[in-house]
TrEMBL record:
It comes from the Eukaryota. The lineage of its organism: Eukaryota, Metazoa, Spiralia, Lophotrochozoa, Mollusca. This is Ubiquitin carboxyl-terminal hydrolase. It comes from Lottia gigantea. Residues 162-499 form the USP domain. Belongs to the peptidase C19 family. UBP8 subfamily.
């Protein structure tokens, strides 16, 4: 991006002023109201291919939207001699004569007027933008200038990679910290200084403030291992069941950390307009999904539905009851893939005569079936493979290899895919075609693994730094990995990021 000005932009301003930029920025980038966001969602399509594709640009000389990837905006600029366009994702101006994004102080001031402080275009500020195509915006360039600790991140950079010192059986914490600090949209939130502390005068007790400092440490460019003693102290203080130097469960730590983060930043953005009972903090915006439970009366087919918020999906790996076993499968069937686990998780379950419910229509206790589906998908989906089995006097670890894909489509497991016969339509879920809706597709970006037995073990984590670069985090040691290493690992926690982000 050029920061030295552009003669073509200067000539455009001299002829038409800055109103074209102000209007486009107001309606299609800043979107200050819900109505403006709805208008943007309906209007932002490429006028050539009619796709709501990534990196949409708006011509500054006429009413035309064109996609950058297919070069429709380039073709428009060449044919119409309209050389300037605005990137609707980042609000930056591109000059097709200079063949570069250009900087202008007047346009920067206009952009800043829509916000009290410089921010990245994050949650609710764009539609249908894949998380993996991360590039610095003009706002971020200004932040980089003001803070010498910040560094530009590009496709070859290793900024963000940093080991964590084990403070005594704290590998369970280190691997979750690695997963969170490499969660793309959470990273962008903290690097844009979006956090406003809800504990004035007590910021040292705020876990969100500590996470903000942690992100600064990770992306400062330092290569030496970080010592997360303040984070450990705050976790011990706010989740006392995790205090002490005994080995803890990484999944339990994840849920506890999200809970404390949620409590400490609750109210930052007010309450959700669509659901007054749902907090609109950054944790809920990213991690909270809606799990729908449909209980159907066997007598009258009356369906009772409840929807509960969830931060993760826990999936059984052991042999399920007969209702969950696939046709022609042995009686001791155990799922061997994430898709099989999800299919079993969302299949109807007969509750039996010992668990009769009082039907609201029959007004009597009847047998019923229960089915779980996803009503609302989170931005980040975390799948917990239940490898640790605890029963009276019996504890064991399930080390069965469970395959998981690099890309996952959750469409078959949505409530909207449930048919009227308390099941899913007859599609082959075990081999999901790539032609399904892109809106529910996810990309893998972190995998937490447990090595060893239930008594003695160690946690490590694979993280994706860029689109095709994977690294293994083993406390203070960071080594390069391949996607094959990741997909062949004994996954315990699987983190997927939605490929397309949309307005509520």
């Amino acid at each position: 991006m050029s920061v030295h000005g552009c003669q073509h932009l200067s000539a455009f301003k001299a002829a038409k002023g800055t109103d074209p930029f102000r209007i486009i920025y107001s309606y299609f980038i800043a979107c200050p109201s819900a109505d403006a966001r709805r208008i943007k969602a309906k209007s932002c399509v490429c006028h050539t291919c009619r796709q709501t594709t990534l990196r949409l640009h708006a011509c500054m000389s006429c009413i035309y939207f064109g996609c950058y990837g297919a070069k429709h905006i380039h073709d428009h600029a060449k044919s119409k001699k309209h050389n300037l366009a605005i990137d609707l994702t980042y609000g930056t101006v591109i000059c097709f004569v200079c063949e570069d994004y250009v900087y202008d102080k007047d346009l920067e001031d206009i952009a800043r007027s829509f916000s009290q402080k410089p921010t990245l275009n994050l949650v609710g500020a764009y539609i249908k933008e894949p998380f993996s195509t991360w590039e610095p915006s003009e706002d971020e360039i200004q932040l980089l200038k003001k803070n010498p600790k910040r560094r530009k991140v590009n496709s070859n950079s290793t900024v963000g990679l940093r080991g964590l010192i084990n403070l005594g059986n704290t590998c369970f914490m280190n691997c979750i910290v690695q997963a969170l600090t490499h969660t793309p949209i959470l990273r962008d939130f903290f690097l844009a200084d979006r956090h406003t502390c809800q504990m004035p005068g007590e910021s040292k007790q705020c876990l969100v403030c500590e996470m903000a400092r942690l992100f600064q440490e990770f992306y400062s460019g330092a290569c030496t291992p970080h010592i997360p003693y303040r984070l450990l102290h705050l976790v011990w203080t706010n989740a006392r069941h995790l205090a002490g130097y005994e080995q803890q469960d990484a999944h339990e730590f994840l849920i506890a950390a999200l809970d404390v983060l949620h409590r400490h930043c609750k109210g930052t953005n007010g309450m959700s307009c669509s659901n007054p009972h749902l907090c609109n903090c950054i944790i809920d915006q990213i991690f909270t999904g809606g799990l729908q439970s449909d209980v159907t009366c066997k007598q009258c087919n009356n369906v009772s539905t409840t929807i509960d918020p969830i931060w993760d999906i826990s999936l059984d790996l052991g042999p399920g009851p007969p209702a969950f076993r696939f046709t022609n499968s042995p009686g001791n069937y155990e799922p061997t893939s994430l898709l099989e686990c999800l299919k079993r998780f969302t299949r109807p379950e007969h509750l039996g005569s010992s668990a009769k419910i009082k039907c609201g229509k029959c007004h009597s206790y009847q047998e019923s079936t229960k089915q779980l589906t996803m009503k609302k998908l989170p931005v980040v989906a975390c799948f917990h493979l239940k490898r640790f089995e605890h029963s009276t006097g019996y504890h064991k670890k399930i080390s069965t290899y469970v395959s998981f894909p690099e890309e996952l489509d959750m469409t078959p497991f949505m409530s909207s895919s449930r048919n009227d016969n308390n099941g899913f339509s007859n599609q082959i879920i075990l081999d999901i075609p790539t032609s399904l809706s892109c809106d529910n597709k996810y990309s893998l970006f972190a995998v937490v693994n447990h090595i060893g037995t239930i008594e003695v073990g160690h946690y490590t984590c694979y993280i994706r730094l860029h689109k095709d670069q994977w690294f293994k985090c083993d406390d203070h040691l960071i080594t390069k990995a391949t996607v094959t290493d990741v997909l062949n690992s004994e996954g315990y926690l699987l983190f997927y990021h939605k490929q397309i982000l949309e307005y509520e």
